[in-house]
Amino acid sequence: MILNITQAASKYFVVGLVLCAISACSSYTPPIERTMTQLEWRQLQTKTYSVADELVVMKAVLAAFQDSGYNISSTSIVLGLITAQKKEQIDGGCVSISNPSRMPYCVIAIDEVATTTITKIGKNETRVRISIQKNGLTDSNGIEWTRKISDALVYKDLFSKVDKAIFLQQENL
Question: pLDDT, tens digit, for every residue of 118-141?
Fold first, then answer.
């Protein structure tokens, strides 16, 4: 009797895996992470502004994140630190399993986390470094993968929004 229950459970498990592979559980592939030197990462993620007041730049970065759909997680004026994140739900994003000892799971959301440091350099300049990474979140509340964002257009877009926010503040608009 116990053997029959075990055999039946095994059959249902295999059928479930096959159905997941054929059905709406599509495959989600994490973004490919480029290999870059530390200097290349810093150049991609950093911009210097001719603004003496760090608070003006910090408010501009906050506005840029909010305009880009991020929620602000934490800020520290003293440290010049901002963390922000946004989540994107994935419908039916089953991830293939290379380890047969693991139960099937699905990546159900992508969590994008941005960390920013704002540093005054010299008398009239402020440097901003924005580092963004994506995390694949599973249906069991785990992180399956983490990737740094290396797309220059993502950073260019954010810095463009910071530029505009600084301009608006300086013009009192």
Answer: 999 999 999 999 999 998 887 777
Query: Which numeric CATH code is attached to 25-170?
Result: 3.30.310.80
162 and 155 Cβ atoms separated by less than 8 Å: no
Tokens encoding 111: 């969590």
Using DSSP bridges, classify how beta strands 143-148 and 125-138 pair: parallel, antiparallel or unpaired.
antiparallel
Question: Are the CB atoms for 127 and 121 separated by under 8 Å?
Answer: yes
Q: Which residues contact 55 (CB under 8 A, 6 or more apart)?
A: 77
pTM assigned to the model? 0.74
**C-alpha–C-alpha distance, residues 135 and 147, integer Å:** 7
SS3 91: coil
- How, if at all, do strands 46-49 and 125-138 pair? antiparallel
DSSP assignments along 40-81, one per residue = HHHHHHEEEES-S-HHHHHHHHHHHHHHTTPEEEEEETTTTE
Q: List the chain domain ranges.
A: 25-170
Pairing of strands 125-138, 107-121: antiparallel
Give the distance, in angstroms, between the CA of residue 98 and the centroid of all CA atoms in the same chain: 24
